[in-house]
Amino acid sequence: MTTIEENNLISRDSGWREELRKRFTTKERTAVPRVKMPEMDAAYRVRCDDEVNQGLSTEQAVLEARRCLDCPDPGCMKECPVSNNIPAFIKNVERRNFGEALKVLSLTTVLPAVCGRVCPQEKQCEHGCIYNKMKKPPVAIGHLERFVADYNRELDESVARQSSAQAVQAPSYFAAIKIAVVGSGPSGLAFAGDMAKRGYDVTVFEALDCFGGVLKYGIPQFCLPNHVVDAEIEKLRAIGVKFVKDTFVGKTLSYDDLQEQGFKGIYVATGAGKPRFMGIPGENLPGVMTANEYLIRVNFSQHEIYGQNVATLKQKRVAVIGAGNTAMDAVRAALRLGAEKAMIIYRRGESEIPARQEEVRHAKEEGAEFLTLHNPLEYIADENGLLKAVRLQRMELGEPDESGRCTPVPVEGDIIDVEVDLAVVCVGFLPNPPVSLPDVDLSRNGNILVDGSSMKSSSPEIYAGGDIVRGAATVILAMGDGRKAAKSMAEAFEQIIRNTRLD
Amino acid sequence: MNIIRKIVRHSEYTAEMVIENPSIARSARAGHFVMVRFTPDCPRIPFTIVDASPADGTFTIIIHKGARLADLIGSLHEDYRIGDVLGPLGQAFEIRNYGTVVCCGDGVGFVPIIPVIKALKQAGNRVVTILSEFTSETSCLRANVEPYSDVILHSSEEMATLELIDRVLTDEKVDLTVITGPTPMMKAIAECTRVRQIPTRCILNMVMLDGVGLCGICRVMVDGKRMLTCIDGPVFDAHHVDFDQLQNRQRHFV
């Protein structure tokens, strides 16, 4: 698919790249300090829903792009689950061709504005950056990705869509092939984008009344504003992807219905949103909420609980169980709703916290307390049957387990009760039960089993990816699955078409 | 899609409406429910699918003032387009010929049992219907079940529901009991049928945010296992539901 123009855009050997490399010496480049993302003041931001990270200015972005050494064998790309051509997009930023930078990103990702915000860069691209070897902070790849996406989106918006024709695709050979995507989260969107670009007729079905899946109902606005997600969805609409809401495939429409309606390929990306519990006493008390209940209420502004109002948590104490990204979202949301005390309760130590570093830092700046090495044993009710306290077992770190993390072991007899008004359980998610999938093999946990290289399930027309396959993982891995599935499904169709032609 | 084709106001409290949505009409079975969001400002509320006509592409729900919709009920009219309707959700009631079935519900809490009564009758069961309240608010519901009930009884000040059901269970051989309504009543009836070893199903009516298994508000312990009413229910074996815990949750959520 690589055209000459595209090659010029991404090739390290193209003239402009070579010229750009010569413009500054390595010494000059490495002397530039890593950019600092402009953030809203912590004291101010906990009182509103505005996005905390304000985004880089153009000059900040160009300067940060200069830090990138344009390595011949870039480590960053190897760590990117969707293999974004990171040096190529950064060098386009350095030469101020922001539109071209987006084109580079668009070759591999449909959600740059989202990934620039929510990817754990420190474990991925930035982890592979050459600067780490020099004991210097890596190039701020995530911030730059976000800059490129935001810059172009704002440009589009200011042009007021006068050129609404985003180069409408020429009728494709594949336009007669209807593809259904079940679920509009990151994996489904990535798949839909790739298939639409290849010319297929793609329809995305969503059970809820808005598109974006976990990007909408899970991640709060102060991390990922809804308009950013909507803009990415609009871009997909512009290339021909159809979106259908309020449709629960397997209930509203069966998989047989889809096949009857002529869908030749189905990508199942229904995610993992079923809440997990620890199985300890008191988890069903009023006042103990799942992460989803809390975040859906926050994100969809359904603050009013029947008979109990969480719109204000003033003078309330909130315990968030767990220390993943969801837990950070919940604890920070609680602070924004006015909680007097909001704490993370985590059974391992500080350095084992799985959430993104930036989120942990933001949570701390905003006043969240971290009660590490404590594990909930029980939720205790008051005389009215409402949550009153959580009983915690103090832990200490033992030997590292297979994952390399130290196993927490209880400290015998060291148990405390912490008084709380609300507990939010964020200890992971289970796969959403796929409803009446025909002939698809599932794991014991309810994950769809697929061939890892093609994302193909045991049923010939059905592919699957994202959290429904992996269990709760990250946005970028879900997207990676979507792209992989699109590639292999498209190849399968091309194969069929070739074979039919030969006949 | 989602247009109100017909609306019948049974009382100032209760309205029955026929909504056009061919996919839901085609797939709906007794026991299923829909999540409805009338306008973007409304919460998403679960409603039992009371009836469905695949031929007309419509289904019926009954909404009640109690669902915090007092103002809304007044403003709804025919040809009104509802913002969002998702369904059919939940597991269908297992309909077959059990023999004699006693179906018991209370007031507006009676709504979830209406489609079950109809389907059980059509499957050849002898249906004894017990309405545990009989006021102007709910009298309208009688018409929905009368054609499908071999016997209709209603409790009164002289004869409480529990007494009434006890008498029915004494007088005839009952093969299945289906109950819905307030949790304390379901608990009491479940105890009564447990002693007599009569299989009993309850249809739970719970608060939900999404209806597709995400929020977990509708969780209930059944036989020691955590179930979600939205995806595992709303019908459960009443002899295994932890009604005490349910009641404690509902005191704060209803």
TrEMBL record, chain A:
Question: Which GO MF terms are attached to this record?
Answer: iron-sulfur cluster binding; oxidoreductase activity
Dihydroprymidine dehydrogenase domain: residues covered: 50-154
Residue ranges of every copy of the FAD/NAD(P)-binding domain listed in the record: 178-482
Which protein is depicted? Dihydropyrimidine dehydrogenase
Superkingdom assignment? Bacteria
Q: Please name the source species.
A: Duncaniella muris
TrEMBL record, chain B:
Q: Could you say which residues bind [2Fe-2S] cluster here?
A: 215, 218, 230
Cofactor binding summary note: Binds 1 [2Fe-2S] cluster per subunit.
Annotated Dihydroorotate dehydrogenase electron transfer subunit iron-sulphur cluster binding domain residues: 207-242
Which cofactor names does the annotation list?
Answer: [2Fe-2S] cluster
Gene Ontology molecular function terms on file = 2 iron, 2 sulfur cluster binding; flavin adenine dinucleotide binding; metal ion binding
Print the keywords alphabetically: 2Fe-2S, Iron, Iron-sulfur, Metal-binding
One Pfam annotation reads DHODB_Fe-S_bind
Q: Does the keyword Iron apply?
A: yes
- Extract the Gene3D superfamilies matched here: Nucleotide-binding domain of ferredoxin-NADP reductase (FNR) module, Translation factors
Task: Give an example GO biological process.
Answer: pyrimidine nucleotide biosynthetic process
Keyword Metal-binding attached: yes
Domain of life, per the record?
A: Bacteria
Q: Which NCBIfam families match?
A: PRK06222.1 (NF004862)
Protein name listed in UniProt:
Sulfide/dihydroorotate dehydrogenase-like FAD/NAD-binding protein
Q: Which organism is it from?
A: Duncaniella muris
